[in-house]
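debug: dumping io for the single-chain case to check the tokenizer round-trip. Nothing else runs in this session.
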Amino acid sequence: MKHASTMSPLGALRAFFTALAVVMASIPAAQAQTPATWPSRPIRLINPFAPGGAVDVTARSLGTALGETLGTQVIIENRGGAGGMLGVDAAAKAAPDGYTLVVGTVGPMAISPALNRKMPYDPVKDLAPISRAADTINLLVVHPSLPVQSVKELVALARARPNELLYASAGVGANDHLSGELFNALAGTRITHVPYKGGAPAMLDLIGGQVQVYFASYATARPQMDAKKVRALGLTRRQRFELLPDLPTIDEAGVKGFEVANWYAIFAPAGTPKEILTRLNREIVRALAQPDVKSRMLQAGVVAVSSTPEELGQFHRMEMEKWAKVVRDAKVTLE
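debug: decoded output
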């Protein structure tokens, strides 16, 4: 008995490709990525702040070097707003396929969760740590009319004049605000907080003498230091800074335990394949070790650092605990 063919060769071929398309569509994008196929298109690196500034310098310096080592383009996407939370939230909700990264900073990753009862993302559960990227240099600076030449003298003056001295910040809940709260807690002082709408107006009022103390970024403070308009007393980090080798840290200058790491780190959406995270870590560490990358960042007052994903994860959790305690003890609110 003869069996008539019910499908032409062309029809069979079409059916095969249709079935193949259905199978491929059923495979999640993250699973389809392997070290052998990734990356096959440009990578998006979100800077959760506006263009310019130290975060932007870090993102662009790292992005250029990383793109070269990975053999693809790394596109910097500036998505500012809500103190960095909008950009971090966009990354947290992106596909976990290795094509979206974000520069997480101490604000939206560690301080904001302590200040906001309702966060749009969970910084631990929704994001995967890859590597630390940089520490920015912040300085304790005072108006030159203040009769102090050291951190110890500032502490003594502030204790003698409780609530009289004023310290500026870029806003309630900002890194420099909580730096002041931590200083008060550890030094036993009561220096009064005065919030501004950004670092520039805060520095202007310090120069004008309306406030006496400010925990300023290196990029903001250095020109005013050179012009003798402000006096630097100490560094907020635990290590000295090579461009200011004679300036002590606040910790070594007398306020033991003081450390404010204004840090940047690279995260990916949770669920990104481990193989991709491992390769990203390896290439990011390699990129941050390049002399030209380190030099470019250093001129902006940013020190390149790196870590394993595990080290970053542990550091991140410690930072969240630290700032939650500072916020709780100081009764800081966003109202």
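debug: round-trip ok. The longest helix spans residues 309-330.
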